[in-house]
């Protein structure tokens, strides 16, 4: 067992660390696209929600110019209140795909309903299962059956075992292209939005062959904490990060308090190479032609 402890649950058969000889690498768009688990970090950045064509194109230009390689954004939005903005749906998907293609980015976006899995898979390179749906077994099977890579976020109060068993549901479809995402769990202290569990990153490396990334935006809920916790995540061994970036966080329809401005994201990315190098990682190359304040194409 290479000195690694067995998990408490014996039902981890496909995602357990000993199910493969080495840690998995999940690639998007073929060998030349972004990968999770390799030497190069996966940097997923973009708005919480796609609000307009101009917003998503401007954001794609800014994050690609700063060194991101995956555009994140919500076309279908699970909201606590049914009266809050619910996303642009298929129109939002089309906007994301076009914006990503303009600046050489892959796309990751959330699926809420099993009936939408195939539709989202037509536009996205990676399908996200959000925290609220981590144990929605019908949805887990549906996204697995698309054959597309899956980003599985940790549930609001999920144990590591419950999280890994959710991944097992996806793997049972024959799709083991799964990336885990730590995004914080609920605690008694309201000082931050969630309790970001960075210790889970090296723990997962001993429990599963699946790569793991960290979302410090949802993990903290406070924009000023995103960069330091993102750097800490890389230092802890995360295969990448997921960060919310918006052209004007104060006017964002959702999650403005935790979103970075373009300039803040640029500064964050400039501070990352030294930390990445210390743990044997590198950053993606910046997209040629994309600049921090690039206007959206006409």
How would you sum up this structure, described in words?
The protein has 298 residues and is an alpha/beta fold. Helices cover 33% and strands 13% of the residues. The chain is built from 10 helices and 10 strands. The strands form 2 sheets. An 8-stranded parallel β-sheet has the order 9-8-7-6-5-4-3-10. A two-stranded antiparallel ribbon has the order 1-2. Strand 3 (42-46), helix 1 and strand 4 form a beta-alpha-beta unit. The radius of gyration is 18 Å and the shape is globular. The chain starts with 25 loop residues before the first strand and ends in a 20-residue tail after the last helix.
Radius of gyration: 18 Å
Structural class: alpha/beta
Mean pLDDT: 92
| Share of helix, binned | 25-40%
Enumerate the strands of the largest sheet in spatial order, edge to edge or round the barrel: 9-8-7-6-5-4-3-10
- Would you give the CATH topology? TIM Barrel
Secondary-structure topology with pairs:
Blueprint: E1 26-27, E2 35-36, E3 42-46, H1 53-66, E4 70-72, H2 90-102, E5 106-110, H3 117-123, E6 126-129, H4 137-145, E7 150-153, H5 160-171, E8 178-182, H6 200-207, E9 212-214, H7 216-220, H8 223-236, E10 240-244, H9 262-270, H10 272-278
Parallel strand pairs: 3-4, 3-10, 4-5, 5-6, 6-7, 7-8, 8-9
Antiparallel strand pairs: 1-2
Helix pairs in contact: 1-2, 1-9, 4-5, 8-10
What is this structure, in a nutshell?
With about 300 residues, this protein is of the alpha/beta class. It is built from 10 helices and 10 strands.
């Amino acid at each position: 067992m290479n000195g690694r402890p067995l998990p408490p649950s014996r039902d981890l058969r496909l995602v357990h660390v000993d199910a493969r000889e080495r840690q998995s690498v999940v690639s998007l768009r073929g060998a030349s696209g972004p990968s999770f688990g390799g030497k190069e970090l996966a940097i997923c950045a973009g708005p919480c929600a796609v609000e307009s064509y101009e917003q998503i194109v401007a954001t794609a230009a800014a994050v690609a110019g700063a060194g991101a390689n995956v555009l994140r954004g919500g076309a279908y939005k699970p909201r606590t209140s049914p009266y809050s903005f619910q996303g642009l749906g298929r129109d939002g998907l089309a906007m994301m795909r076009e914006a990503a293609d303009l600046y050489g980015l892959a796309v990751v976006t959330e699926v809420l309903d099993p009936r939408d899995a195939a539709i989202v898979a037509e536009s996205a390179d990676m399908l996200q299962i959000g925290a609220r749906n981590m144990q929605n077994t019908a949805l887990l099977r549906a996204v697995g059956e698309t054959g597309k890579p899956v980003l599985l976020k940790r549930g609001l109060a999920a144990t590591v075992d419950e999280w890994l068993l959710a991944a097992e549901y996806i793997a049972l479809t024959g799709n083991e292209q799964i990336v885990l995402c730590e995004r914080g769990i609920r605690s008694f202290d309201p000082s931050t939005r969630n309790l970001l569990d960075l210790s889970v990153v090296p723990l997962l490396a001993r429990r599963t062959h699946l790569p793991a990334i960290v979302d410090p935006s949802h993990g903290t809920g406070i924009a000023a904490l995103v960069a330091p916790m993102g750097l800490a995540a890389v230092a802890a061994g995360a295969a990448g990060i997921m960060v919310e970036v918006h052209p004007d966080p104060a006017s964002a329809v959702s999650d403005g308090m935790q979103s970075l401005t373009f300039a803040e994201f640029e500064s964050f990315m400039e501070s990352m190479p030294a930390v990445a190098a210390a743990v044997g990682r590198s950053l993606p190359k910046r997209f040629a032609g994309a600049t921090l304040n690039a206007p959206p194409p006409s």
